[in-house]
From TrEMBL:
Gene3D superfamilies: Glutaredoxin
Regions of compositional bias (Polar residues) in chain numbering: 219-228
Biological source species: Miscanthus lutarioriparius
Spans annotated as Disordered: 200-228
Protein name: Thioredoxin domain-containing protein
Length: 228
């Protein structure tokens, strides 16, 4: 046999063995790496199971559910008392309405006054949002006794009641820049400042919803102005 051919064959065999060994080493390394990556996932699953069985977490969850249920029940009670909507009342209803809730906003209006219509629309937009406060309106012409008792001289006049006591009022649009095109948010902020509606931290969705309502109110007011 040709010596050179023998050397070539042996060399090829040695190279083949090296490649095979390298392939085996690579396979072992990949298997080891896969096991290492799988281990944390298994560990995470165990931790998650332990977390789900955590009695403290279950207690917090139960307390949250109970609080939400209590809040829903409270809202239902308030709605039965006339909260959550902007309603017209009569002079005969007045005392019962303003003493029957902790916080009440009463708009004394005249049905022919344009500014009273503007105030109506903003209060109507706020009433469903602030269920903790009752929003009502009373025709001043049909309530002469309380107009005199409350010394109402200018309309619109929005009187704020806490526990049946008149604590503050908005006369005309004096607190709103004396302009007709104020936003619902402007009125909302004043009512918050006066403590007659609850302070709320709005998220982005609520901001968009409120701004949408402002646009609808201003648009509707403009249409009324054109039709008058």
């Amino acid at each position: 046999m040709d010596p050179d051919a023998v050397k070539s064959t042996l060399s090829n065999l040695a190279f083949g063995n090296v490649i095979a060994a390298a392939a085996r080493d690579l396979q072992k390394e990949m298997v080891t790496k896969d096991k290492a990556q799988a281990a944390p996932a298994s560990h995470d699953e165990v931790d998650l199971d332990e977390l789900l069985d955590d009695p403290e977490l279950e207690k917090l969850h139960a307390e949250r559910i109970a609080a939400l249920k209590k809040e829903a029940e409270k809202r239902e009670v308030l709605k039965r008392q006339g909260h959550g909507e902007y309603r017209e009342i009569t002079e005969g209803d007045f005392l019962g309405e303003v003493t029957g809730s902790e916080k009440v906003i009463c708009h004394f209006y005249h049905h022919e006054f344009y500014r009273c219509k503007i105030m109506d629309k903003h209060l109507r937009a706020l009433a469903p949002i602030y269920v903790g406060t009752k929003f009502v309106k009373l025709d001043a012409e049909n309530a002469p006794f309380f107009v005199a008792k409350l010394a109402i001289k200018t309309l619109p006049c929005v009187i704020l009641f806490k526990k049946g006591i008149a604590v503050d009022r908005l006369v005309g649009f004096q607190d709103l820049g004396s302009k007709d095109d104020f936003s619902t948010r402007a009125l909302e902020n004043i009512l918050k400042m006066k403590g007659i509606i609850d302070e709320k931290k709005d998220d982005d969705d609520n901001d968009e919803e409120s701004e949408s309502k402002n646009r609808r109110v201003r648009s509707s007011t403009a249409q009324d102005s054109d039709s008058d």
